[in-house]
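Work Package 3 (structural annotation) set out to generate three-dimensional models for the target panel prioritized at the project kickoff. During this period the team completed the workflow that converts sequence records into discrete structure tokens, so that structures can be stored uniformly alongside our sequence database. As a representative example, we reproduce one entry of 70 residues exactly as it appears in the project archive.
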Amino acid sequence: MSITEQYDSMLSKVQKLSSYEKEKLLMDIILDIYSSHVFGMEYTAEMLNKLINQFLDRTEELRNEANQIA
């Protein structure tokens, strides 16, 4: 899968998040960038990509768990 296809796929998943989930993701991104800055690290696209993918994976896991309980 090309990098463009990967980001298109990620964007599609992010667009499907609820408003609360989007706000939570934004806060996670801001905190991650800030903490990198505090420790003198350069924040890279790879770091952002990893953070977003982890958030999307965890959100999907939580939704699946909630559906199993319901």
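Residues 15 and 22 are 8 Å apart (CA to CA).
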